[in-house]
Amino acid sequence: MAERTTSTKIRRSRRDNENPGLLVRLLRWIERIGNLLPHPFWLFIILAVVVVLLSAVLEALGVGADNPADGEYIAVQSLLTPEGFQRMVTDAVENFVTFPPLGLIITVMLGVAVAEGSGLISAAIRVVVSRVSRGWLTFTVALAGVTGSVASDAIYVILIPLAAAAFKASGRSAVLGAVVAFGAASAGYNASLLITASDPLLAGISTSAAQLIDADHVVSPVANYFFSAASAVILALVVTLVTELLLVRMTERMKHEEDASGGAATAVLAAGRDVDVEQHDGTGTHLGTGRPGEHPSSPTTDDGQAAPISDHSSLLTYSRREVTALQASLLALAGFLAVYFTFLLVPGSPFRAETGEVLDSPLLTDIAVPIALAFLAVGITYGIKAGTITRPRDIPELMARSVKELSGVVVLFFAAAQFIAYFGWSNIGMVLAIEGAHLLERLDLPVLVMFAGVVLLVALFNLTITSGSAQYTLMAPVLVPMLMLVGISPEVTQMLFRMGDSPTNIISPMSPYFALVLGYLQRYYPRAGIGTLVSLTLPLSVALLCAWFLFFVLWWTVGIPLGPGVPVR
Prior knowledge:
Order of helices and strands: HHHEEHHHHHHHHHEEHHHHHHHHHHH
Strand order of the largest sheet: 1-2
Radius of gyration: 25 Å
Shape: globular
Largest sheet: 2 strands, antiparallel
């Protein structure tokens, strides 16, 4: 019987592969086209070379434009000259070290690394998700996914299997839980209740682009915070509605096969995680004891250390020690915020700006450092109480691990910094922005229609360039100055990019996490394929893109600030 069932599954799989639907064929075509693109590092190098060659051609053609700000004529400058080549060599290091996102992302991640490495972020998600009722489970997972971008890409590894186990435990499909977590974390990546590493990163890129027009303009890392935090709740609600009204019915048939196949998510709430402390599943049920960091029944490695947990049986459990550590970290966060706002608001504070204005304080204008310190404070507190940080040297080691993980980004930034510099030296960006602004004026499009066009353009580009920072680095030097010249601030343009950038992540095979989630789905539901994943994520993608933009339209109409000291219009 088992052989017959296996044979039937194989025949069905072959039939699905031989006769893919229109949607699957379209996605495979997008995947093939996207795979033709080089690595982002080489893409920026190629673009830098194109800028050099194009600058020579455009200068020879006498291309230029009048700057509407001061009437000065701006001509394209050729870089294909001895002076240009010399500048490329002498300024290469300066281009790199002064690239705004570089210092910001490294600084913030030093703090986030301690919070993540100590186990704080994982424990917080486990405790929150395991304590909610079934009625609130979808919304809680969705909100945790949207806000989970604070853990950067680690949120996928943390939340997807956890949500699958939670949904299975509640009597629903594990596939549904994985899709909800993936959809919220990836499609809602650019919204969060908390400041994330993306905020200083995108702000740095926006600042570089804005300074093509205004050399003194600086975009704050919290420039979009008010709207982003409100968006997190809205997007979580949209994910919940789509899930409850549509996806629950679509995955109902999968539950029985999941149980029959003995998938990885069928054993839930069965064992503990921590050792010298009692385990609980969020309902008061005692789940045993064990040593910190070990699964009581899991194998050990040759050196006696606990082996990595290979199933989901312990993902929803937590210990009293972890809860105590979380409570201590909340107190640490409250203390940090009290000190922060005291220095920010009290007259005579050494951190008050010379103008006396709160919004000009370095605690806001250079908020990357306070953000890093906040994560550092709560991470260290949690680690000490949980026993994951036992020596002072553990802290810099966790930081060093984070810097190692950023090595790929740093390499990419070197190429991106050169491209941005060449683009600015040549004046091509300025001329494109001025002419683009003139075109927008001639078209006389309603502002909201123009916004919709920008969001859709970003969403389409995102199908093939799924790295948000790489895509924004490419688009910002044109979009930001162009919209500045028609009265749209860089902060608004940045938010438009964020709205278009993340919703289509979950339907693009070019996303590295698309394959990761497909692998998870096949563990729970062996028959899952690309069509299965896309059929479940496409409704989420479309709904989130439309709802997010409509929410922005409402925000714009009312005139609520995007962030501290950042008017929306």
